[in-house]
Amino acid sequence: MAKEMKKIMVTGSVGQIGSELTMALREKYGNDNVLATGHRTQPKPELRDSGPFEFINVAKRETIDEVVKKYDIDTIYHLSAILSAVGEKNPYLAWDVNMNGTYNILEAAREFDMTRIFVPSSIAVFGPETPLDNTPQETILKPKTMYGVTKVAGELLCDYYVKRFDVDVRGCRYPGIISYETLPGGGTTDYAVAIYFEAVKNKKYTCFVKEETMLPMMYMPDCIKAAIDLMEADFSQLKHHSDFNVTGMSFSAGELAAEIQKHIPEFVCEYEPDFRQDIADSWPNSLDDSAAREEWGWSPSFDLAAMSEDMLKVLSQRHADGTLDY
Ligand code: SER
Questions:
Q1: Tens digit of each residue's pLDDT (9 = 90 or more) over 268-278
Q2: 85 C-alpha to center of ligand 1: Å?
Q3: Domain 8-176+218-245: what homologous superfamily?
Q4: Is the full-model pTM beyond 0.90?
Q5: Catalytic: 71?
């Protein structure tokens, strides 16, 4: 009989995914049952005031143990990570946070006999030798970024804990995530978020990857659904654990700009590729997520048109109200 998830902790709860996932988990499992944690950055009032919040440093095990004991945590969504672009500027920090952080969370899960752990992976596990189109579930994982290195090692470590220690760890390879609540913190796919904000605010955007650059992406409601559905899935149905390909859509930067122009015809996008172009070029155009579909019923709801309509509706309203926070 599967153990219940009663007391949940979210690491990285102040980040792009964590901030919205925490609110969704509080809605689903009860505000007091979801501890939000962060490292230094102050939470927005909505997050801070809707349930418990603590500061921890995932690279320091004792700070994890302290809150795990205090709140009797049995489930962790481990969202804290240094993303690809910041990771190339500071590879030592990326290793420390991503590798030691994941190891510490897994060790805490093992020692405290936790119910379930979610550790997201990323399209950054792939590299230039990987097939670019409809990238298979099982394929070449030879990333060239420190972020990618830590995500491949993280997947392997998570699967090791499943097999060796019976810790129930689950995770999916997220593509670029697009959202309007919290900006991403230094990834390669950030242009696909920034372009919406700039389109609404300034009617122009200078994109840091080329017009033809294509990457897999996902809208935040699907990102949250993937995390919650995978964590709710029947363990006995899972053949994979920590490395499910998941995707919502794929588009080039030019196609994204053209979609926005359908709503804001005067919008102009220019392209000035920087160091992130090489990273983007090493990642897939599109993903095959059939394993996730078969093993736990993954199915995204948003395509480029539906996402753009929603993003622009919310951001335009905020711009009109004077509350567009960018
Ligand atoms: N969005 C991430 C990044 O660009 C990929 O996981 O680094």
A1: 999 999 999 99
A2: 8
A3: NAD(P)-binding Rossmann-like Domain (3.40.50.720)
A4: yes
A5: no
